[in-house]
Amino acid sequence: MQQARNLAAGLGIRMEFLRFLLRDRDGRYGEAFDAVFEAEELDVIKSAPRAPGMNAHCERVIGSLRREVLDHILVMGEAHARQVLAVHQRHHNGHRPHQARNQLPPDARKQPTAIDSGAHKLLRTRILGGLISEYRYAA
Questions:
Q1: β-bridge pairing 122-127 and 43-46
Q2: Given CA atoms 70, 82, 103, 52 in this order, what sign does their dihedral have?
Q3: 69 near 88, Cβ under 8 Å?
Q4: Under 8 Å CB-to-CB from 72, ≥6 apart: which residues?
Q5: What is the pLDDT of residues 87-107, one digit of tens each?
Q6: CA atoms within 13 A on the CB side of 62
Q7: Whole-angstrom Cα distance, residue 123 to residue 139?
Q8: For 15-53, what is each residue's pLDDT tens digit?
Q9: How far is CA 34 from CA 14, 41, 52, 83, 112, in A?
Q10: Which is more confident, 13 or 91?
Q11: Total-model pTM
């Protein structure tokens, strides 16, 4: 319950923009835990019982972020974490190929035109200090 209070206090004014708290049915969360967030006018939604795959999409994103970025960078505070996540989000949505979209990034509208690789120079852009690399052909 104290951790719930600390979280609510730490969020401060940002708490106004939240509408839901989605949580699992772990025994660590009791009625007192829920009461802290209900007092802040949040609807507490519990995941379905015995449904471990219910949060699979969230778990996948969190795992990818951890493996690809956070395991390799020492985050120096909330502002730094927001900056790192914003850079990774731009890369993920604007450049990284996605198998479900026929190797297109989410923000891409169409397949890029084929370029004769022998006639153009390949340029590398380092993202997050070289942790991620993006490649493109020079114009």
A1: unpaired
A2: positive
A3: yes
A4: 131
A5: 998 888 888 887 777 778 888
A6: 5
A7: 10
A8: 778 888 888 888 888 888 889 888 888 899 988 888 878
A9: 18, 11, 21, 31, 49
A10: 91
A11: 0.57
